[in-house]
Design a protein that fits this description.
Number of helices of chain A: 3
Structural class of chain A: alpha+beta
Order of helices and strands of chain A: EEHEEHHEEEE
CATH superfamily of chain A: YjbQ-like
Number of strands of chain A: 8
Largest interface: A-B, 30 and 32 residues
CATH topology of chain A: Jelly Rolls
Radius of gyration of chain A: 15 Å
Oligomer: homotrimer
Distance between the termini of chain A: 9 Å
Number of domains of chain A: 1
Helix content of chain A: 25-40%
Chain lengths: ~130, ~130, ~130
């Protein structure tokens, strides 16, 4: 198990962490198995999708903003970040990716991204390879 | 592998099962690895998010009710619970959480919750630790 | 680890792959553990839900089409398939399912389905059992 920190820069952004997860897989010495990438946070998540055109990431943030608008939820009266919780609940706190030949078995157009919904903050990413 | 049952009380609710999953991790004897929490149902799911303010759970149920309204789907003519299937499909039947020092590596604001979308019912929860 | 290919037939469809995943679990020889089903694609996903009434699948495709309409995103100017990326990002590239007695511990109403959002194409499905 390894852990690293990502310092996010904006309120909402997707940060490509593929290389850092790949390095954790390499360091584990596991050649074939599964890799769990997990954020121990309730207003962030892990998304696997395209980052070759980074506009896909912007589109996803826009789409989630439309589905979960700001400021209209019960929890907003407590902490004013309810929409971030809703986005994190739906995208999920982690993803499990196969490992083959000692590397993440990602597709050509797949990147692993930390989804920040209530930044900027320091976010922990836990990687377990089995 | 262990399994327990949750008796839900309402049509839609999130039931905090963190302690029961934590106990399954402890009983497994695994000190470091991953924990898969899974519900073998098509109208329920597993969500990881905040329960310190339980209004976050109510907000999530409200948000999903808006995105997947009742009574307007093909399957409603068969079983009248299509929206519950749609919510379960999107939240997913399970989550995988890292285990460290013999405990779930949850964040300060994360709880593990059974998401009931078509209750009240008895729901099975399967926990595998590896 | 095993891999198989699914040839999808329509732009959007759910293809039931339960039997092929079940066969991969059997061939692995693992009696108790977890099974990771993963698609290395950015416009497809894996969904676990009901297929006894296949209208549930049609309802899910309709629901996702409403939430993520075609043709209104930045990435559409590059590749005209942004909505497929958004659907894949939200449903997720994989699912983890417990294995008991050498078989997937699916519920009575659960099927494992490849979710095609930008077909028809040949899609790879990777199965890892641990």
């Amino acid at each position: 198990m390894t852990e690293f920190t990502v310092r996010t820069r904006r309120t909402r952004e997707l940060v490509d962490i593929t290389d850092r997860v790949q390095e954790a897989v390499r360091a584990s010495g596991v050649r074939e198995g599964i890799c769990c990438v997990y954020v121990p946070h309730a207003t962030a998540g892990v998304v696997v999708n395209e980052n070759d055109d980074p506009q896909v990431c912007e589109d996803l943030l826009d789409a989630l903003a439309k589905l979960f608008p700001d400021g209209v939820w019960r929890h907003d009266r407590v902490d004013n970040n309810a929409s971030a919780h809703l986005k994190a609940a739906v995208t999920g706190p982690g993803q499990v990716i196969p490992v083959a030949d000692g590397r993440l078995a990602l597709g050509r157009w797949q990147a692993v991204m930390l989804a920040e919904f209530d930044g900027p903050r320091d976010r922990r990413v836990i990687v377990v390879v089995r």
